[in-house]
């Protein structure tokens, strides 16, 4: 049966998924309901009503612990309307059900990475998936153009997707403030990097695969941006590498929740206090799986380096400064086609 699989999809033996995988179980589940009623304080030491301060302080502590111990956590009562989640999931399924020739009319290219694609590579092995990427803010630099492409025969898709982007972006800013506070920074310390951001949303479809022991929906990787906010269906397939023992564990889907993970940029900003954690997507032999990550990324002009408040004589900067726009372009190029060398990683900027 394995011989029927295109060799481009086949993972090296050491990276193939095991036939059984444990449930992550203890991945932090965080209730964001205090944010539905209270404002996030501007500073960790802001005075406020003791009861409110206790609720928010507990929430910040939970976020900090999850970032430190897992690099991943799940959130419920997040403020994004259930009806909106249902609409974006429905239109995602409608899009991927279109005939191949219709999807290819909005196919992305090497210059513009927005649109449909079905031959993405991770670690130079082809992923078992098809994707559709879109943003809300279209922009162009000398290196890259972000220009949305929408299918003509799904006229409602654009409005639903843009509404979803704006809803999840609001959540992203709240999470960014909580993460900043957990690092003992002011709440807005990271937010200014996101003016004119190049954040985007991806619609993922992972079709059934007759050899799920040989291929991966997405190969092992760490997210290179700031923060990822993932909505997934009930099928499941997201695996993360547990920091305590290096074992792969499955993240159990929780209805109408979001899975949050830190990207490389937060690892660098925090000077390794928080870590971007390796993860992958396993495929299912019988079921289609759909997921919708929002990649919350700073402006392409941002120069990324450890934050000055988090370095000291005893804790020197662990990374050289790099430009996010250049980094992002290099990663997009390597995802677009198979290369003969590994794509750029943050450890290439690690100080010796």
From TrEMBL:
It is an enzyme of class 4 (lyase). Keywords: Lyase. Its EC number is 4.2.3.19. This is Ent-kaurene synthase protein. It comes from Dioscorea alata.
């Amino acid at each position: 049966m394995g011989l029927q699989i295109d060799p481009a999809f086949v993972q090296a033996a050491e990276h193939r998924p095991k036939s059984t995988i444990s449930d992550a179980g203890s991945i932090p589940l965080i209730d964001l309901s205090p944010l539905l009623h209270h404002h996030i304080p501007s500073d960790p030491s802001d005075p406020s009503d003791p009861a409110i301060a206790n609720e928010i302080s507990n929430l910040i502590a939970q976020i900090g612990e999850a970032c430190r111990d897992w690099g991943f956590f799940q959130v419920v009562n997040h403020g994004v309307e259930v009806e909106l989640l249902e609409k974006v999931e429905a239109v995602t399924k409608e899009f991927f059900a279109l005939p191949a020739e219709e999807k290819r009319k909005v196919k992305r290219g090497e210059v513009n990475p927005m649109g449909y694609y079905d031959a993405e590579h991770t670690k130079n092995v082809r992923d078992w998936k098809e994707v559709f990427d879109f943003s809300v803010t279209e922009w162009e630099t000398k290196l890259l153009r972000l220009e949305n492409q929408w299918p003509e025969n799904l006229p409602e898709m654009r409005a639903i997707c843009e509404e979803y982007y704006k809803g999840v972006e609001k959540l992203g800013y709240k999470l960014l403030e909580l993460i900043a506070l957990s690092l003992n920074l002011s709440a807005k310390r990271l937010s200014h990097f996101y003016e004119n951001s190049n954040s985007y949303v991806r619609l993922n479809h992972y079709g059934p695969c007759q050899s799920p022991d040989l291929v991966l929906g997405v190969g092992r990787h760490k997210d290179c941006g700031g923060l990822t906010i993932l909505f997934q269906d009930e099928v499941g397939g997201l695996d993360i590498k547990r920091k305590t023992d290096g074992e792969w564990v499955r993240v159990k889907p929780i209805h109408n929740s979001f899975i949050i993970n830190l990207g490389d940029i937060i690892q660098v900003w925090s000077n390794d206090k928080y870590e971007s954690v390796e993860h992958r997507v396993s495929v299912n032999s019988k079921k289609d799986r759909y997921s919708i990550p929002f990649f919350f990324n700073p402006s392409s002009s941002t120069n990324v380096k450890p934050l000055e408040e988090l370095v000291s004589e005893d804790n020197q900067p662990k990374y050289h400064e790099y430009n996010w726009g250049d980094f992002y372009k290099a990663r997009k190029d390597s995802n677009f086609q198979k290369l003969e060398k590994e794509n750029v990683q943050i450890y290439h900027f690690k100080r010796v």
